[in-house]
Amino acid sequence: MAIAEHADVLKSAHALFVGDADVDAAKGTIKFNRGRFGKVILKKGEGRALQSVGSPMVLALNVISGENATTGYTNAHLANSVFGSLVGGTDIVTLASQVRACSHDQLKFGPLADKMSSNATLVGDIFNGVATVYSTAVSGPGALRNDATSKLSTAHGKRGGADHVMVCLPDASLGFSPYAYINHWLSVYPHGACPKSGIQIHEIGHNLGLGHSGEGSNAYGDRSGFMGFAGEKSNYSPVLAKSVLAGPKNWQLGWFTDA
Ligand SMILES: [Zn+2]
Fold first, then answer.
1. C-alpha span between 240 and 29 (Å, rounded)
2. Cα 15 to middle of ligand 1, angstroms
3. pLDDT digit string (tens) for 150-204?
4. CB-side exposure of 56: number of CA atoms within 13 Å?
5. What span, in angstroms and rounded, lies between the C-alpha atoms of 200 and 130?
6. What is the b/e burial string over 8-47, where b = at least 16 CB atoms within 10 angstroms of the residue's CB?
7. Ligand 1 centre and the CA of 91: distance in Å?
8. pLDDT band at 253 (very low <50, low <70, confident <90, very high)
9. 212 C-alpha vs ligand 1 centroid, how far in Å?
10. pTM score > 0.85 for this model?
11. CA atoms within 13 Å, Cβ hemisphere of 41
12. Is 63 buried (19+), middle (13-18) or exposed (0-12) by CB count in 10 A?
């Protein structure tokens, strides 16, 4: 195991500058030991908790708080924003469409299969990859998140059976940024962020084990892919689909190992 200071990892004409990381060439891993994001382990092509090829199933939770605050979006709107034509929607720039194009059809996110709820007072039926959560928590993104995932477990089983769960929270005043767990199934979105494809891709990218693009303190400085600046749909065009994730991220996901 080597300790790398300011290591340059060159691939596909992209450079990754690392302040403090362990590089294990035999295993193909890069472990970042500190930084703004805590510990992040990158590993080439294998070893992730979640699949980066194939057809993982996504469930978005449309959370209504205990005081009846809503996201302001219908389930149909959220489904359209995440899956587009896969659920009969008209949105052509979605998590599903952009990642599929970027991966050259190797990673195809789709909606979790429709399923009746066993307790519709907690979580409604799953339809087109979206379900409504009737939370009893009233405030605090952590409390709402925990209540939503707990009620999902009760009504539909653990994670609802999905590979990725997107928790869409109500109330613009919560004041937090979208976030996701690395090598995990959960991503969490404040009011307004959930339908934005750039943010969806960024957060689900964390689920797949990706860290941020950029250098030093400017962790979001790389705007060539969505692991840097997570653009909003308004400044993003489907023409750019193939650069959704910048070169090193494609390599890390094992999509283009010969690139
Ligand atoms: Zn991030």
1. 29
2. 19
3. 999 999 999 999 999 999 999 766 778 899 998 899 999 998 899 999 899 989 9
4. 24
5. 14
6. ebeeeebebebeebbbeeeeebbbbeebeeeebbbbeeee
7. 24
8. confident
9. 6
10. no
11. 12
12. buried
Closest-CA residue to 82 (of 237, 235, 203): 203
- Give me the count of residues in the chain: 259
- C-alpha 252 to ligand 1 mean position (Å): 16
Q: Which two structure tokens, joined as six digits, stand for 137?
A: 């928590």
* Residue 213 CA, ligand 1 centroid: distance in Å: 9
**Structure-block tokens of residue 247:** 């070169």
In the numeric block, which tokens belong to residue 143?
């409390």
pLDDT value at residue 22: 56
Neighbours of 154 (CB within 10 A): 13
